[in-house]
Write a structure and sequence with these properties.
The protein is an alpha+beta fold. Helices cover 37% and strands 20% of the residues.
């Protein structure tokens, strides 16, 4: 009878990468692959041109699992390279398991592994806990069928995500086409009644109540209200006067993924953290959706990038936000552009719904 579950330690052998020293990294030889080279956060690929244990060599098709700092599972497809420490190379030498299915099954368990991590400075999962993690283990035929289905869904998700990105690019291109040569540049400070940030007073959170929004809630240039942090009616009444949000106001992230604006479109009560800037446009001067696109336009993003301060944590300060220069055409042109954005947004809603359905699958 086939087993329903199998422990990772029983499914394969895991070879840890080599602890290359900083002096080992040069400009010639084989690439040294670190976790950041897998996650796409590296801009400094190093190379090694000496002798090395054969077991740390990786080639196209090898499955890699990062087990420290950032948990993840990847299929390597960038040619011969060498594996740095804190990454396992998976050798399928123990049971009959499909490689692609294995990757999906491990991804399915990453959240569970994350809850087992240890360490103060660099979180990691110890080998004992890693080996003991169980994954579903159907027959080989079912494994292949499951992996093929998930791959098709992944392709749909990628397609829908690309469609959303292209629609955003369409809006940016139309903005440049209509207003790229506008000579009437106005300080953002002069276009807004209020420019401030979220509450600096750490509120007391509870399981239900009024949503408390974080930078992560500003995604895809919109505000999402699904949050794990809520505040009481009493706390809201104490703090909301600083940021009396209403539809048509803008929020702008100031740390992390800084410079991402979102227009508040729903009449929902909420508060937000101090790492989000709050802008109330002067309605008689500027259309909210026009202003949103102006901040996202190439020139707006260039100005934001130039005004960011800090090294360890880059921050967009309120004083710098006020200095951003915005092209200001006639209101009728702004409204015409906003109507175009509204039509594109209708298409985005349809694509987003299809993307959400695929992600649920």
């Amino acid at each position: 009878m086939h087993r329903d579950l199998i422990k990772l330690g029983e499914a394969a052998t895991y070879i840890n990468g080599y602890a290359f020293k900083p002096d080992d990294r040069g400009k010639v030889g084989l690439p040294i692959i670190r976790i950041q080279d897998l996650t796409g956060n590296s801009y400094d690929l190093g190379f090694y041109d000496g002798d090395y244990p054969e077991k740390i060599e990786i080639n196209d098709g090898d499955v890699l699992i990062s087990w420290s700092a950032s948990l993840g599972v990847y299929i390597w497809n960038n040619g011969k390279a060498l594996l740095n420490q804190h990454i396992f190379k998976v050798v399928f030498d123990k049971v009959n398991i499909d490689k692609n299915y294995f990757v999906y099954a491990v991804r399915y368990k990453l959240d569970e592994m994350g809850r087992k991590t240890h360490g103060a400075t660099m979180k990691h999962i110890v080998k004992r806990d890693f080996d003991a993690t169980e994954i579903p283990y159907p027959s080989k035929h079912e494994q292949i069928e499951i992996a093929n289905n998930l791959k098709r869904i992944e392709n749909i998700i990628e397609l829908r995500s690309n469609e959303l990105q292209l629609l955003d690019e369409l809006i940016k291109a139309r903005f440049v086409e209509m207003f790229g040569d506008c000579s009437n540049m106005v300080l953002l400070n002069d276009l807004c009644l209020i420019i401030t940030d979220g509450t600096h007073q750490p509120p007391k959170f509870q399981e239900k109540g009024i949503p408390f929004i974080l930078v992560s809630n500003l995604s895809n240039n919109t505000v999402t209200y699904n949050t794990e942090k809520y505040i009481s009616e009493e706390t809201y009444n104490e703090l909301y006067k600083r940021t009396p949000i209403e539809p048509g106001d803008l929020l702008l992230s100031t740390v992390g993924s800084y410079g991402h604006p979102a227009v508040v479109t729903e009449d929902i009560r909420f508060l937000f953290q101090r790492h989000i800037a709050y802008l109330r446009p002067k309605r008689e001067l500027v259309n909210s959706f026009y202003l949103h696109s102006a901040l996202l336009a190439p020139d707006g993003q260039r100005q934001i990038e130039e005004k960011v301060k800090g090294i360890a944590q880059k921050t967009l300060n309120l004083s710098e936000i006020r200095k951003i220069m915005i092209p200001l055409p006639k209101m009728e042109e702004q409204d015409k552009f906003a109507a175009f954005v509204h039509q594109v947004d209708k298409s985005k809603v349809v694509v987003q719904k299809a993307l959400d359905e695929a992600q649920i699958l």
